[in-house]
Amino acid sequence: MDRIKIKDTDLELSRLGLGCVKAGVKWAGQEAFDLFDAFLDMGGNVYDTARVYSDWIPSERGRSERVLGQWLAHSGKRHDIVLVSKGGHPDMTGPDPDMHKSRVSERCLKYDLEESLRVLGTDYIDIYFYHRDNEEVPVSELIDIMEDFKKQGKIRYYACSNWTTTRMKEADAYAASKGYRGFVANEALYNIGEPWMKPMADDTLVIMDKEMQKYHEENPRNLAMPYSAACNGFFHKLFANGRSAVSGSEYYTEGNLRNAERLHELMEEYGISVTQAVLGYLTCQKFTCLPLYGPRNIADLKEAMETFRIPFRMEDYPQK
């Protein structure tokens, strides 16, 4: 698989990132180890986790990082991968999490980072993300926190997730004024179904809108890493089980039902799977994308990885 090189870094990233939110939940034990091995064998190297992943399931915090850390210890492959994790997410352990109760502070970030390092069994994280923003805190303070982690050798690079374009530009300007490298990547919600979806229940999630897309076109030093790249399985479920299976989804709109018709045509035209048709949208943008994908199993992962061999064109897809 080709590699994405981020300007002014030594990072070389696979074109698809393995979203590890399911680790310890949908895939655990040997099944998880086999999937992690398969991703590496197929040419992948970006493993994306977070301190908060699966905290919404009672009895254990940080399952995803634990399972990934166990695989790293077992496989000895730490130096073969690009390890991504995130901190500063609101607490998800209670019955009704308050997504507006910010944990984006120096104290919370230090705690999350130390826990991530401990559970992952590593001395450093390759790319460490703010999982959320707190717009009441000046970007200068937040960049300085990450720079401190970097100076301590606990992270190699830092990035943001669910930040607005305005805040990213402010962070870029501050980092440049101090001679810092600044953010190397941005995780935001972006996929083929997003332009037609209903408003999300969690309004702290940030969509990669037209302004942000233009930002990434003009700023290749900050790599776009779309999450929910496969629309949370909306089109998979729709094709497999019909409209009743997806009627409660935020993607269930007339626009996305029309999208489904075009995807079906595309699948027949190229002889491809729904996974490939959906992810293909992210391979033909005007800016470089590294989508994050959480596969159901190894066969699904293989399909996803083969997406990047297909010569998709932007005109293959509906536009809004």
UniProtKB/TrEMBL annotation:
Question: What region holds the NADP-dependent oxidoreductase domain?
Answer: 16-317
Record's keyword terms, sorted: Oxidoreductase
Q: Name one GO molecular function term.
A: oxidoreductase activity
Q: What Gene Ontology terms describe where this protein resides (cellular component)?
A: cytosol
Tell me if Translocase is a UniProt keyword of this record: no
One Pfam family hit: Aldo_ket_red
Q: Which PANTHER family match?
A: NAD(P)-LINKED OXIDOREDUCTASE SUPERFAMILY PROTEIN, NADH-SPECIFIC METHYLGLYOXAL REDUCTASE-RELATED
What is the protein named?
A: Aldo/keto reductase
